Amino acid sequence: MKYISLVLLASFISIIAFKGIAAENEASLKGLEIAKERKARDRGWNNSESEVLMVLRNAQGQKANRKLTVKSMELANDGDKSLTVFQSPRDVKGTAFLSFSHVFDADEQWIYLPALKRVKRIASKNKSGPFVGSEFAFEDMTSFEVEKFSYKYVGDDTVNGEACFVLEQTPQYDFSGYTLQKVWIDKSHYRVYKTEFYDRKGALLKVLELKDYKLYKDKYWRPSRSDMRNVQTRKSTALITENMVFDTDLSESDFNKNSLKRAR
């Protein structure tokens, strides 16, 4: 009798464990499907050029403004390329940042610092560092690629009146500054409304909120404002898009690390 009881207990535990694994797999598959749909809805935009205002705020609320231009190009079988050039103020004018995002390989990034008059490659182990003194990290400045993360659907929520899926995505690339990102994606257009970033200790580090979406080319949504708030330091950075145009005369030759010094 005791033997039968032990067998039944073992069977019960096995069933519970199996159900737990099945539920975990289902959550992962649903998370991956949502991530794939998010990417699929943003394919085919070709290229764009933007004028952006960066607003830096310290813990006391004091702010500093920077003007920059951003050129971006979509590649068919790889991540995007982007070139960011600071136009003002004088202490950062001429600083240029070039980023090649990749689907499977490590991203490549370079920065030109006028004061040093040289191009510096951003090492992969330094990608978690701050982007030109902002609350955005270098790794935040790359395009979203599905293959860079593993996923888990964790529920539904509402952000700014929009019904959203909530996913946990875990970086699968080396040297990330994050153990986890929690992402709110709206159900109507698969736009990201909020992302929480958790540091290497698993503590909440930053919160990114994307606002005032505008529709371009009757298909592609872009936020007019991106607010990154560091909850640990109470500093923040806002990126405000003042103008954006698509399908300009950009080519891959405009994204050349050898021309960073001449970027305007």
- The tally of domains stands at 1
Give helix % range.
10-25%
CATH hierarchy, class: Mainly Beta
Order of helices and strands: HEEEEEEEEEEEEE
Superfamily at the CATH H level? Answer: Lipoprotein localisation LolA/LolB/LppX
Number of helices: 1
Largest sheet: 13 strands, antiparallel
**Tally of extended strands?**
13
Q: Residue-averaged pLDDT, rounded? A: 92
Look up the CATH topology: outer membrane lipoprotein receptor (LolB), chain A
**Secondary structural class:** mainly beta
- Cα distance, first to last residue? 83 Å
Describe this structure in words.
The protein is mainly beta. It has one domain: Clam (outer membrane lipoprotein receptor (LolB), chain A), CATH 2.50.20.10. It has one helix and 13 strands, in the order αβββββββββββββ. The protein has one helix at residues 2-40; strands at residues 47-57, 63-73, 81-88, 96-100, 108-113, 118-121, 149-159, 162-171, 180-186, 192-198, 204-216, 220-230, 236-246. Strands 6-5-4-3-2-1-13-12-11-10-9-8-7 form a 13-stranded antiparallel beta sheet. Strand 12 (220-230) and strand 13 (236-246) form a beta hairpin. The model has no long low-confidence stretch (mean pLDDT 92).
